[in-house]
Design goal:
Number of helices of chain A: 13
Structural class of chain A: mainly alpha
Strand order of the largest sheet of chain B: 5-6-7-3-8-9
Radius of gyration of chain A: 20 Å
Shape of chain A: globular
Largest sheet of chain A: none
Number of strands of chain B: 13
Number of strands of chain A: 0
Order of helices and strands of chain B: EHEEHEHEHHHEHEHEEHEHEEHEH
Oligomer: heterodimer
Order of helices and strands of chain A: HHHHHHHHHHHHH
Low-confidence stretches of chain B: none
Structural class of chain B: alpha/beta
Helix content of chain B: 25-40%
Distance between the termini of chain B: 28 Å
Radius of gyration of chain B: 24 Å
């Protein structure tokens, strides 16, 4: 293992770099939370007029949690990795006696720490101004503990999934196109636009086997008690399988990719 | 002691061939054609500790690919290499800690932060203690004149300052091996000179082994006693720079300054006129006739100053590999 000082310095450098891009971080933070809040508006209206399905309070609670989880699990390192592989910039990190992914991890964690302020503030504001709009009775301690455990796994899963897609650039020059499909699936299959609670059964069954639910919806479902007992266990099983599977796959891809890599340009 | 050894090193890679235009794109969608490029065909070399070697060849000859294999960035298709006792592409941490690769355009520095921050990162990544770092920083600050911009954000530095910063980041941890790929590209002559002097000084002070590629061949001549010329992925010359000139060039240059104007046709009787103005000219003469023709010129023309020179390394290399762009 590299010394802690190396990693600590990488984190502190990333932190300072972030300070240079404050406006950028704020704009991304707003953009990232826009979709959950737009979906909230739509489904809240539906819930108000509907006889069945989740209550309006459940919808608000769900989407406030989703806004938080969306930022906590957001990953972009794989996109930069694709650029770096395609234009050869990755050599700058390969030549150094520190695992190149530390830089990506530091960048991801630091940036998210700042971005999380926004949904947290919104959650607190909503809770203070309209305490009845959130169904706090659902958020019991066991639910929240399970959700927290699942969120940690979701953060790792999202990061590894993103890096795995980034590593495709070792084989394919059009790795960016594949990333578009990831975005598309992320919208429909993660519970971001349509909550799993109101999804048609076929779609629900299908999407339960993809990793996207376990990056976003699953921790929120656990917090709200929508997945309990055997369903929670099954969910954790799938989440863990995807995480470990992708960790192994990305490690193998990293090794195989470096072996065949022909650094482009100078 | 050999510090770098390679044996039949070879690197091939496949590139996708696509004809231009829309038709070409459609065709490549259905039927992809690949061709194999042999970037390095067969490189066997040995470099001793403390040597400063010039590594030159035309664009696309395989220089950078070779340096990348030696620094562990690329796996070879076949062949072996040992650098500092390690197989480079295994990229062991202890190996990476002892070498540095400076590539003109691939910056090590963090653009958004001051140079000093990047140096601190190097200190931690290369596991230097505080004393080693301070000593090395003081030395580099003096040699590269860093003081005035050490605490300025890198993106605000001039190209010359940035290159000096890059060298500082590459050398702060005192690597035993230094691969310099076009370290002076795009720099003005004053900064080029500074960088050149610095490379020489670093080599002498720390007995570092240096492999240098540069577009400026006469820089290479000034720095490197030994020259390796590579073309089409194979070594076509490996020896002392001066012997390349002695062995491959059978002429010398007589450079003349006149006290009175001299006509060009009056000079043609002594040899081939390579440059001419009424008061200054250069004449190329066969090596064995150099002294006779120099004496003739001195007695028959109004010569104010005379010098006899070997042709520039650049012209020698150009002569050997006609009209190719050399680096």
């Amino acid at each position: 293992m590299p010394s802690a000082a190396k990693i600590a310095r990488t984190f502190s450098m990333e932190w300072s770099r972030l300070g240079q891009y404050r406006a950028d971080v704020i704009l991304w933070m707003i953009a990232e939370t826009a979709i959950p809040f737009l979906s909230l508006a739509v489904w809240y209206t539906v819930a108000l007029s509907g006889q069945t399905g989740p209550t309006p309070q459940e919808i608000v609670t769900y989407y406030i949690l989703i806004a938080f989880i969306k930022i906590a699990t957001d990953s972009w390192g794989g996109m930069f990795l694709t650029y770096e592989i395609l234009d050869g910039d990755i050599v700058k990190d390969l030549i150094r006696p520190i695992w190149p992914m530390w830089k990506k991890i530091a960048n991801n964690i630091n940036e998210k720490t700042i971005k999380l302020i926004f949904p947290t503030l919104i959650g607190i504001t909503v809770l203070l101004l309209w305490p009845n709009i959130i169904d706090t009775s659902l958020l019991t301690t066991p639910h929240l503990l399970l959700a927290a455990a699942s969120l940690i796994l979701a953060i790792v899963l999202a990061f590894v999934l993103d890096i795995t897609l980034g590593l495709i650039a070792f084989w394919l020059e059009d790795a960016f196109q594949i990333r578009r499909y990831k975005f598309m699936l992320e919208y429909v299959a993660s519970g971001l636009i349509i909550p799993f609670a109101v999804m048609p059964p076929i779609a629900r069954t299908l999407f339960e086997f993809l990793p996207f639910r376990y990056v976003l919806s699953f921790p929120a479902e656990l917090a709200l008690g929508q997945a309990e007992g055997a369903r929670a266990l099954e969910g954790f099983g799938i989440q863990l399988t995807w995480t470990i599977g992708l960790l192994i796959l990305s490690w193998l891809m990293w090794r195989a990719g470096l072996k065949r890599y022909a650094v482009p340009g100078r | 002691m050999s510090i770098i050894q390679t044996h039949n090193l070879k690197k091939e890679y496949k590139v996708h061939k696509k004809e231009p235009g829309f038709r070409g794109s459609l065709k490549s969608l259905v039927h992809r054609e690949y061709k194999t490029v042999e970037a390095v065909k067969d490189i066997s070399l040995t470099i001793e500790a403390g040597e400063l070697v010039g590594f030159i060849g035309p664009n696309g000859a395989g220089k950078t690919t070779t340096l990348k294999m030696l620094s562990g960035l690329l796996y070879p298709t076949s062949g072996t290499a040992t650098v500092l006792g390690y197989t480079p592409w295994q990229r062991k941490r202890e190996f990476l800690k002892q070498l540095s690769l400076v590539m003109g355009q691939k910056a090590q520095l963090w653009w958004d932060l001051p140079l000093y921050d990047s140096l601190l990162l190097q200190r931690d990544v290369y596991e230097m203690n505080k004393k080693e770092f301070e000593e090395s920083l003081a030395e580099l600050t003096e040699l590269l004149e860093l003081k005035e911009f050490l605490k300025v954000q890198v993106r605000k530095l001039s190209l010359g300052q940035r290159m000096r910063g890059e060298l500082a980041a590459a050398l702060i941890y005192r690597p035993k091996i230094l691969f310099l790929d076009e370290p002076t590209i795009g720099l003005d002559v004053v900064v080029q000179k500074k960088v050149r002097e610095f490379i020489r000084e670093y080599n002498v002070r720390h007995q570092a082994t240096i492999m240098l590629t540069s577009h400026y061949l006469d820089d290479v001549r000034e720095l490197a006693k030994r020259l390796i010329i590579i073309d089409h992925g194979t070594i076509c010359f490996d020896g002392l720079t001066e012997s390349l000139i002695a062995d491959h060039v059978d002429h010398k240059l007589i450079v003349l300054t006149f006290s009175k104007e001299v006509a060009e046709k009056d000079l043609e009787t002594y040899g081939r006129v390579t440059s001419y103005s009424p008061l200054k000219a250069s004449i190329q003469v066969p090596r064995e006739q150099t002294s006779t023709q120099a004496a003739n010129v001195l007695t028959k023309l109004p010569v104010e100053d005379i010098s006899i020179e070997d042709p520039s390394l650049e012209s020698v290399v150009r002569e050997l590999f006609t009209n190719q762009d050399y680096a």
